[in-house]
């Protein structure tokens, strides 16, 4: 198992797409969490997020600011990573090569998921590491007191962020296996994450009570509730406190396990050709 994890990690590290996704995630996170809001504050520009003010950009908000993008745009990048890791094996025809070396499909699949979950953790930590100097520079530029979150708050934020990132990554792996490829899996995953969830939340839920209740069981709204409980701004896309933080964490963990189990069942039972 250790050899499989080492091999999967080496494959993931050497894949240029992995680093491209990480660079995009960090750029989007810093730009839309710190640079653009601070530019609007410094220029006195009004807008839908103008009421957040400078306090929302300071170091004590690091946890909420770092994980606020995971329900939607950072989650979409994690989903793409999962699709590439699992669906790419079909596109490149490498499942046959891998399973010739070890016919135990579930062991190979478990190693791939462990590697993806470690990559999700590294991505979340990188977002925190990128946000910390950005918030520090803003505080110093505005001559504000620098107060960092406590260790327990940081650990809780990284843990919750990892849980959400791992869920989206494993969902991407499931879609790659279910659809045996990359293009359709990425397309359908992004349509759900970026379009369907927003349509349900913004259009259907206000009109139909059963939709409003049903979305409390969906992965995206629970991810949004979890980050909202940890301080993410309610004006961030996908962030809304529909359920409590404990319930949201339990539902997200349940989806993570369910996606992993379903992907393993499909890979184990179906022909890989």
Descriptive report:
- With 273 residues, the protein is mainly α.
- It has one domain (1-269).
- The chain is 75% helix and 0% strand.
- It has 11 helices and no strands.
- The protein has helices at residues 2-14, 16-43, 62-67, 73-91, 95-101, 105-141, 151-179, 183-207, 209-214, 219-229, 245-269.
- α2 (16-43) packs parallel to α6, α7 packs across α8 (183-207) and α7 (151-179) packs parallel to α11 (245-269).
- The longest helix is centred in the middle third of the chain and has 37 residues, at 105-141.
- It starts with a helix and ends with a helix.
- It comes from Actinoplanes digitatis.
- This is ABC-type transport system involved in multi-copper enzyme maturation permease subunit.
- The chain crosses the membrane at residues 20-41, 67-92, 113-140, 160-179, 186-208, 248-267.
């Amino acid at each position: 198992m250790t050899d499989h994890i080492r091999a999967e990690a080496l494959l993931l590290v050497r894949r240029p797409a992995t680093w491209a996704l990480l660079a995009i995630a960090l750029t989007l996170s810093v730009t839309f969490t710190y640079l653009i809001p601070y530019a609007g504050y410094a220029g006195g520009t009004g807008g839908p997020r103008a009421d957040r003010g400078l306090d929302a950009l300071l170091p004590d908000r690091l946890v909420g600011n770092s994980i606020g993008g995971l329900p939607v745009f950072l989650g979409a990048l994690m989903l793409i990573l999962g699709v590439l890791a699992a669906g790419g094996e079909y596109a490149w025809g490498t499942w046959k090569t891998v399973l010739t070396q070890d016919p135990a499909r579930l062991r190979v699949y478990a190693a791939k998921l462990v590697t993806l979950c470690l990559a999700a953790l590294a991505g979340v930590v990188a977002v925190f590491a990128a946000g910390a100097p950005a918030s520090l520079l803003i505080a110093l530029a505005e001559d504000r007191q620098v107060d960092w979150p406590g260790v327990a708050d940081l650990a809780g934020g990284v843990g919750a962020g990892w849980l959400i990132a791992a869920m989206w990554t494993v969902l991407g792996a499931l879609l790659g296996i279910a659809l045996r490829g990359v293009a359709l899996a990425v397309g359908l995953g992004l349509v759900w994450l970026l379009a369907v969830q927003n349509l349900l939340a913004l259009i259907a839920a206000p009109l139909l009570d059963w939709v409003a209740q049903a979305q409390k069981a969906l992965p995206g709204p629970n991810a949004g509730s979890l980050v909202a409980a940890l301080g993410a701004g309610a004006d961030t896309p996908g962030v809304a406190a529909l359920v409590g933080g404990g319930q949201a964490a339990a539902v997200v963990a349940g989806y993570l396990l369910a996606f992993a189990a379903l992907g393993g069942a499909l890979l184990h039972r179906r022909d890989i050709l």
